[in-house]
From TrEMBL:
Coiled coil: none annotated. GO terms for molecular function: transmembrane transporter activity. Keywords: Membrane, Transmembrane, Transmembrane helix. It holds the Pfam family MFS_1. InterPro entries: MFS, MFS_dom, MFS_trans_sf. Residues 1-447 form the Major facilitator superfamily (MFS) profile domain. This is MFS transporter. It is found in: Membrane. Gene3D superfamilies: MFS general substrate transporter like domains (1.20.1250.20), Multidrug resistance protein D (1.20.1720.10). Its main location: membrane.
Amino acid sequence: MIGLCLAMFLSALDQTIVATALPTIGAELGDFADSPWIVTSYLIASTVVTPLYGKLADIHGTRVMLLVGIAVFVGGSVACALAPNMALLVAARGLQGAGGGGLISLAQTALADMVTPLERGRYQTYISVVFVTSSVAGPALGGFFAHYLHWSLIFWINAPLGILAFSIANKTLKRLPLRTHPHRLDGLGALLLGAASGLLAYSLSGRGGAAASSLALLALDALFWALFVWRLRRAEEPFIPLSLLQNAVARDATISSAFGLGSFIGLSVVMPLYFEGVLGMSADQSGTALIPVMAGTVVGATVSGRMMPHIAGYKLPALAGLAIAALSAAALAGLAQSLALPWLVALLTAFSLGVGAMLPICTVSMQNAVDPRHLGSATATMQFVRQIACALVVAALGALVTGSGEPGSQAFALADLVMRFRFAFAVVGVCTAMALFFLARMEAKPLRGK
């Protein structure tokens, strides 16, 4: 279990740890203009390969593909730390993303190989806690390394942790029976999905240039998605099994988790801007104020995960939590500007507690409902949809909060900024309500004991 948590920690951490170090990296390498590509290249590569890892895990076994992912990730990390210029650093980040893209879904799949659905909720809690904690803690660690030590440590730290994760996972998973199935890889489907998801990730990163170029990219992206859907209907063995898309429980669980996690990550991204831009807090104070957000998610995931095998209506804690989260977001939209900081933090904590309660329920319910032969593809598909949802929500909230104004301009007058955040909080509330709707609609099938 430790090896799986370490693998997930590395992947989730590296999605966010670099952002706060970009100015320092750009200054040292003499290239500010291209520094956002350090984030973009990782995002695109990790998004593209996530479904591929799941399919290959169904064919060759989870252990093999998890070890491949860790090895590629560590190799990419070392290349990043040694990169002498921006071009090589961006390329190395792409390699790192190609390894990291499979670690989260493969860790969840490996857990499903180790324990039955009846027992999985308790263990899934650890996975959820590691993912959320590392995602939120990433910016603080990145800023610390870049400001007080050296930015290359952001990548060097992955080497010993990755080697440790490789060693533990190899030893632990070797004891399990090899789970392989005679699937065929639909190469054309994989290429079409990779192109579609890569273009979408690129467009959402804001690197598309002018409006006309962005629209052209989105049109091309829509074409690739249409071709992928066409291939799903025509292929003898589709890249994503049609049985997964037709499985109501898997579909509702995936959509619910995508809306819920998207709202959480989106709020985690914009709240530091609110603390600093509206309340005038420092970066350190902003980071401290977010600690209860992490704590709330940990508590919510722990409580619902441990209750799951003991109650027939195992959705109830998550449903109650999401209802509280939606109400908290609505309160933020209506009252945030008039609330004292302790009350604001209390609402954020209530929100994160509710979303945390949802995370293990959705993952275990989906895995419990699908054919074990497609477990890798199903888990990777859920993670893929979550990544796309998070990117969409973050892009939408970023556009709402920043618009086209510049700090100090009329567009960024305090009253206008507060109104922008109110709309952003309202969007978070709508996303959370959608997560609640799809979870309520999901059938709570009895958990398998084997």
